[in-house]
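Task: complex structure prediction.
Instruction: return structure tokens for all chains below.
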Amino acid sequence: MTERIVIVGAGTGGIVLANNLAEELATEIDAGDIEVQLVNDGEDHVYKPTWLYVPFGEKTLADATRPLVDLVDDRIDLTIDRVDGVDTDDKTVSLAGAGVDESYDHLVLAMGAQVTPEETPGLAEGGHHFYGPEGAAALRDELAEFTEGHLVVSVVGVPHMCPVAPLEFALMADAWFRDRGLREDVDITYTYPIGRAHGIESVAEWAGPLMDGRDVEVETFFNAERVDPDTKTIHTVEGRELDYDLLVAIPPHDGSDLVREAGLGDDGWVDVDPNTLEARGADDVYALGDVADLPTSKAGSAAHYAAGALADRLASIARGERPTAEYDGKTVCFIESGTDEATYIAFDYEESPTPKPPSKLIHWSKLGYNRSYWLTARGVL
Amino acid sequence: MSETDERADVTVDAVGSSCPGPLMDLIGKMKSVESGTVVELLSSNEGTEKDLTEWTEQSGHELVDIVDHGDHQSYYVRKR
Ligand SMILES: Cc1cc2nc3c(=O)[nH]c(=O)nc-3n(C[C@H](O)[C@H](O)[C@H](O)COP(=O)(O)OP(=O)(O)OC[C@H]3O[C@@H](n4cnc5c(N)ncnc54)[C@H](O)[C@@H]3O)c2cc1C
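Output:
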């Protein structure tokens, strides 16, 4: 009997997992003992970190995508379709387009996170974001016209993808307006939900003085409850109001209805063991990347490292061996702190990060990594 | 079960979440409930009490009670 591994979602986590499995299980796949099916609801792989650069005209939306067929190993059965149901009793997933149920022996959920600006009243109409292709392109057009006024960068949704992207956007905007000789006419405010500038304490300690030095106003304990697009005002849960001319929000995020409906996590994030990535709600189901409820950030690097560990585990299980590889929460995030300098943080479930002093070299490393990312997606790097 | 336990209208379970997860989960819930609602936050994170005390002082929502269950705590917050 052929053993079937089905992966839902060919983003960073799903594609790295599939390509690693293709390599680790090449012999078994070639012999027809194991099949790996990767299902994605679009033909392209999307590298979301590119969107940070789109509003500043430094990258295009096309830079963020590559056809999956060019990236996925031939040993993988790549299926372009949308999964619209998971039945963990029958061990099947249903494909919306084909209208068929596919059976699995091992199921990996890697559907990422969805942004839901409509959850905050007025936000979709009154605010911009760079957390999706249309949003990033609309913001690029808006920024190009914006020559004076109050720019508010507001973290509305937590958890959100890439813990540091909001900080990066504020610092890049500061440098971008300076470079264009407009900074004196643009006020920048950055708002964060809790009592400091970032969820990770050491990052907050690093970012606070930096923002101060760049003349970026920081508002903490600031949680947008609704936005009034007519008066251009943000109203918060704390009872405060803030006027803006251009609002760039980190929108609320959601997991997946599939997860809720399958009883794998009430909030749409899959409840998993953080080390083995096994779902707590069903047997032979795993989750990695943003859709997993893990005590680390929703970051591509976390999805990448988790995929490596899960590939090792699944390969062992498929061969009838006892799996020993575990994901330790490793996450690495580069942080752009202007238009030509950056730093980075590295951490895991045990270790907190310490940002290094920003440098041009790290900035070029980030840009270099963005280009070599396509090797990561192929499972090479 | 204490008196306050019975008064919670909604419970947010953030046991096991690291900082600032529990406070964020609570704030997320506070956005969607009516004024006067008492939300119970379950947290095992040691930073929660400080974060929550600061947030309620700033925001005007009321930290009604804290109940220690040993391995985790219940924080009761009334939306103003
Ligand atoms: C602006 C921005 C900047 C970022 N910067 C960084 C950074 O610098 N460093 C970093 O590490 N991370 C960064 N991230 C975060 C990173 O992009 C994500 O954490 C990463 O993409 C998560 O990978 P994933 O595989 O979990 O999900 P995704 O990459 O989101 O992939 C999910 C895939 O599943 C598919 N899918 C969803 N539902 C279904 C379904 N029902 N059926 C079939 N297919 C489905 C989607 O189409 C998608 O292809 C950034 C994110 C954003 C938005």
